[in-house]
Design goal:
Layout lengths: L18 E2 L5 H7 L2 E7 L4 H16 L4 E7 L6 H6 L7 E6 L2 E7 L4 H12 L2
Parallel strand pairs: 1-3, 2-3
Antiparallel strand pairs: 2-4, 4-5
Length: 124
Amino acid sequence: MRATTPNNHNAVSWQPSTTRVLPDKFEEVIGEHNIAVFHFYAAWNRYDVTMDQMLCEIAIAYKDQIFVGSIDTDAQENWERCKELRIVNLPAIAIFVNGQHVETVIGLLSKESLNSKVQKWLTM
């Protein structure tokens, strides 16, 4: 059973704005992009809405350099990937540079912290 807030009946219906990445496309996406950022989310987690907004800004600003996708942690087919990348809380992002997993970030970052990380990834 999913948790919902009494005052927000649409909590479970929210979906991220970034490209949804299914398990069978994960490796392909990593191989096609020098930098791939995956937002691990749950529709019921309101912090993921804020993370999605910041990641959309990054996707637009760096559209030719960074791929930003989303992975639903409530979908059972993604649970193994969550374990593999140590996604233990939400929101979370996993970053791959040149095909290698370089970082998993747990928790909501400030816009400044996220932008600082983006600059670091671009120089890797």
